[in-house]
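2.7 Reproducibility. Because tokenized structures are sensitive to small changes in the input, we list the exact sequence used for ATP synthase F(0) complex subunit e, mitochondrial, including any N-terminal residues retained from the expression construct. No trimming or masking was applied before prediction.
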Amino acid sequence: MVNASFVNVGRWSALGLGVLYGVVHNRSLHKLEAENKVKHEYERKERLIEQAREQYAKLNAVAVDSSAVVTDVDSPNFDLEKFIAHLEQDKQ
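Resulting structure tokens (single pass, no recycling of outputs):
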């Protein structure tokens, strides 16, 4: 028969190895989760930048049209002469 102290050492060793495995596995899961969080945050920022580019393109596409009269006085594309000519045409 096996000595009782040998059995106890085996049990405690198995318990210690199990705890050690749990700690190492937990660290690897936390590291993986942190990497995924950084990746998702980066992708979210990329989507926001792409949406901002699309909105900017839409705003500039409207402002580039030279035949349209810009009525917003604060706009950098506002032309007073075109605006007055447009108002005169509307009167007639």
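The chain has a mean pLDDT of 88.
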